[in-house]
């Protein structure tokens, strides 16, 4: 079941939480939400597509280390000129995210303003920040 929840904004931000099963079949929901929120910020079409690809890549990394029946928790924070997408999943014991020198990580950093990840043994999170460029 897909769940969408608006929560109390953090420091003036609009925040949307979206939780979907950790299954590749639901990534389209996250890509669509990403595109809709980026469009709300008046991102250029190529920026929206780059962000959709980055979210898809981040989720693919997390799906590879997710526990059985896990859920992807996606937090979108919208500010005046940026969109932060933070995806978290419960991980299997000993799971590790790809290294920052991996191709997948290079894709994330090329498509976003910044990307960071953390794993604590139970959960892994990838945070993507994209600032709108004004043309």
TrEMBL record:
InterPro entries: HATPase_C_sf. Gene3D superfamilies: Histidine kinase-like ATPase, C-terminal domain (3.30.565.10). It comes from the Bacteria. This is Anti-sigma regulatory factor, serine/threonine protein kinase.
């Amino acid at each position: 079941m897909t769940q969408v929840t608006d929560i109390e904004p953090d420091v003036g931000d609009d925040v949307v939480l979206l939780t979907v099963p950790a299954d590749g079949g639901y990534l389209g929901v996250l890509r669509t939400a990403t595109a809709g929120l980026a469009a709300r910020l008046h991102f250029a079409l190529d920026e929206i597509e780059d962000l959709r690809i980055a979210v898809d890549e981040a989720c693919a990394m997390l799906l590879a280390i997710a526990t059985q029946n896990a859920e992807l928790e996606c937090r979108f924070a919208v500010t005046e000129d940026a969109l932060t997408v933070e995806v978290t999943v419960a991980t299997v014991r000993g799971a590790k995210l790809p290294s920052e020198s991996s191709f997948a990580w290079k894709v994330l950093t090329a498509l976003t303003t910044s990307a960071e990840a953390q794993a604590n043994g139970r959960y892994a999170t990838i945070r993507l920040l994209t600032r709108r460029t004004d043309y």
